[in-house]
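Form 7-S
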Amino acid sequence: MNIFNRIIVVLILILLVCFSVISMVNVFAGYFTWSNLALKVLNPEYSVNKFAAFLALLAVFAISVFLLLMEFYRKRTRVANISSSKTGNAMVTLDTVSGQIKSEVLKIDGLDEIRVKVVPKTTGIIINMNARLNEDVDIPEKMQEIINKASTIVSDKLGIKVIKTNLTIVGLAAVKKEKEEKKKEARSKEVEKELIETEEISDKNKENRQESEIEE
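Output:
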């Protein structure tokens, strides 16, 4: 939001807050009268309960204050402290840490998908991961490999202390068809090579027999 829009919104919210406060007080005190349109809403003579009017104005007041606070509120960037830094306060954003973990862990064979969430603590971070593996892998061994990879990249490359690394397997993915097709192609090529070799051997044997018969 630019500066002009921010000023307009703030002025409108301040006016709404003032209007709500004055209206709530006037419902019970009756210091002054509104225009005919306002009286139809606020005046009990028109069968409008003053408590209902008060609650409606209170809701407007609460919403206005909430929007006013949100206008000036700035979401803090969540960071993790680098434990290896001794001369100053060095930090890395949690999004950067999650991205580094995901990019490195996805290089592991047999891992189909992974989601990473980093929880900052005073003494380090906790890594929570949800992964989906291929169904043809050794699950306990692959889980340990992922945990070790994630902890190593954070502690060695980023210099952040890892308190704990949690990994949850949320599903198993079927082996991709491309891999199966490549395996079939490789097998068929091997079979073709074997057939060609056997044919060459048989041809050579025939030639040798023919040469031996001619010599005789």
